[in-house]
Design goal:
The complex is a heterodimer of chains A (225) and B (299). Chain A is α/β, with parallel strands linked by helices and 225 residues long. In chain A, 28% of the residues lie in helices and 24% in strands. In chain A, a hairpin with a 2-residue loop joins strand 9 and strand 10. In chain B, helix 2 links the parallel strand 6 and strand 7. The chains are: A alpha/beta (225), B alpha+beta (299). Strand 3 of chain A pairs antiparallel with strand 8 of chain B.
């Protein structure tokens, strides 16, 4: 069973879970963390979890796709308003442990700062990428003036050891970045100009490209080449 | 030059600042109280930072304990006001600079985050030879009940770093077990024994034994503290654990049960160590300053 951990508002993730449901695949949303049935005995990740309101055994899980950076208070509409902030922190802490403790493939594995992987700011990604020799768009921050994120970028999507989109240099840089960050899923945005420069990053790459979805499926099934 | 960042009323930061002054060691204090200072940072090919007239390339080490600007009344009650927005943006940018700068930072926020999930951190604790109490996180009242029946004496506490009082389950809580359906709740077998807070400073341990009748000595009001020497092996484990978590400075919470087993509950990545300094001692403060003065980048 493939488990997709995502917000109910993540249309790409919910669509993917639906498309793969026969495989089977299930989706775990923050609402499921307010459902009876989760039981996690340290240092294990089980025995049981809840997906779309239904109880499952953790032993059924073969792989997990993580699309949720954290549980946000706004995800918890069924929780009393004054309790949402606390509940969101508790649920995020719970998922961080659960995703780390699962013995199966999990992409990406959570870090202490984010469920999707390293919680680096764009400035951190750019500075770390520059140290790898990747061309980057420098950014300056002064009081009251934060740089706007570039919207006009060409995206390269990394899935495991494969990259999709962009040119050969962009793809090589993107794979190098993913390795440096120890993640298998990464979206890397390059601003075009005389020379492409790294300008945007996401740990939740787009699932619009069928080739990306196929590669993702192979990665989750452990059959990626 | 050593950078301090936070508010001067914070006892640990205040203690470090005073001792730096007394020793005549070069330092600069970035006060979080308004106004937010003018600043300019650069990221990408070249990492740079300037706060007021201070060029951050002069900084060799940093001790940081910032608070959220919204908790400071000088910023006003409006959490969405521009002063708080600017203060938060400055904090986020300085935090990023501290993540990247090739200096000793006590402690970087990315490594402090290991404590945002107690069970996440507990995996590293277990790997370093300490025992962790039997633990269950659940939204299932029946599973919680079975755990309580198996272990008898059970406490519950937060899973995250949100501060909560550790409480033993009583009759009231047993009647409210159905509440766990709303959010995963952490239950742990209660461990009898004596508490120790071990401050790891670089490769050195400063241990305090705490005697208290309360389930959580921080709130019991009867805590008596005494400096003690830990067995070498326990000290070695504390240092290795702190290093594995990337923490040059930490507060390790231990309990030794009557059989001599050492349990570790958590590693505090930004310990409020002042409460553990006896009135006639500045041992932890001194060790921390020595670390800041001589320490090299840890990571």
């Amino acid at each position: 069973m493939i488990v997709v951990v995502a917000s109910e508002r993540d249309a790409e993730a919910t669509g993917l879970a639906r498309a793969w449901s026969a495989s089977p695949a299930v989706i775990v949303t923050p609402a499921d963390l307010s459902s009876t049935g989760w039981a996690v005995a340290f240092p294990d990740a089980g025995p049981t979890f809840v997906a779309s309101g239904e109880l499952h055994s953790v032993a059924e899980i073969s792989a997990v796709l993580v699309r949720l950076p954290c549980v946000a208070p706004s995800d918890l509409t069924r929780v009393e308003l004054e309790d949402r902030e606390y509940a969101a922190a508790e649920m995020t802490a719970f998922l961080a442990y659960w995703l780390r403790a699962l013995p199966c493939r999990v992409f990406n594995r959570p870090s202490p700062t984010m469920l999707l992987g390293p919680g680096w700011t764009l400035a951190e990604w750019l500075t770390r990428a520059a140290a790898l020799g990747i061309a980057v768009a420098d950014i300056a921050v002064t009081r009251g003036c934060r740089p706007a994120l570039r919207a006009d970028v060409r995206w390269v999507d990394v899935v495991g050891e494969r990259a999709f989109g962009g040119d050969a240099t962009m793809r090589a840089w993107s794979i190098a970045l993913a390795r440096m960050a120890d993640v298998q899923l990464l979206g890397v945005g390059f601003a075009d100009g005389d020379q492409a420069r790294l300008a945007a990053i996401t740990l939740r790459p787009s699932l619009e490209n069928p080739d990306v979805v196929l590669a993702l499926r192979q990665l989750l099934e452990g059959s990626a080449t | 030059m050593i950078l301090l960042w936070g508010i001067d009323e914070d006892p640990p930061l205040h203690a470090v600042r005073k001792l730096l002054e007394l020793r005549g060691l070069a330092h600069v204090f970035i006060d979080q109280r308004p106004p937010t200072p003018p600043h300019a940072f650069g990221f990408g090919r070249r990492l740079s930072g300037r706060i007021g007239t201070l060029d951050l390339s002069q900084i060799s080490a940093a001790y940081v304990r910032p608070v959220d600007a919204a908790s400071l009344q000088e910023y006003g009650a409006d959490e969405s006001g521009p002063a708080i927005a600017i203060a938060r943006e400055f904090a986020a940018t300085l935090t990023t600079w501290l993540e990247l700068a090739p200096i000793l930072v006590v402690n970087r926020f990315s490594v402090q985050a290991s404590n945002t999930s107690k069970l996440f951190q507990a995996r590293t604790i277990l790997a370093h030879g300490f025992s962790v109490p039997a633990s269950l996180a659940t939204t299932d009242p029946a599973a919680a009940r079975a755990f309580i029946q198996r272990h008898g004496d059970v406490i519950y506490k937060s899973l995250s770093s949100v501060r909560s009082i550790v409480r033993r389950l009583g009759v009231d809580e047993l009647e409210r077990l159905g509440d766990v359906r709303g959010c995963p709740t952490l239950f742990q077998a209660h461990v009898k024994g004596t508490d120790y807070r071990v401050h790891v400073v670089g490769d050195r341990c400063i241990a305090t034994m705490i005697s208290s009748e309360g389930d959580d000595y921080r709130y019991a009001g009867d805590a008596e503290m005494q400096r003690v020497q830990l067995p070498d092996e326990v000290e070695r484990r504390c240092v290795a654990l702190s290093q594995a978590l990337g923490l040059p400075f930490s507060g390790v919470d231990l309990r030794r049960d009557p059989s001599g087993t050492w349990f570790c509950f958590e590693v505090n990545p930004s310990p409020g160590f002042s409460a553990f300094e006896p009135t006639d001692s500045i041992e932890i403060t001194t060790a921390l300053i020595e670390l800041l003065r001589t320490g090299t980048r840890v990571r």
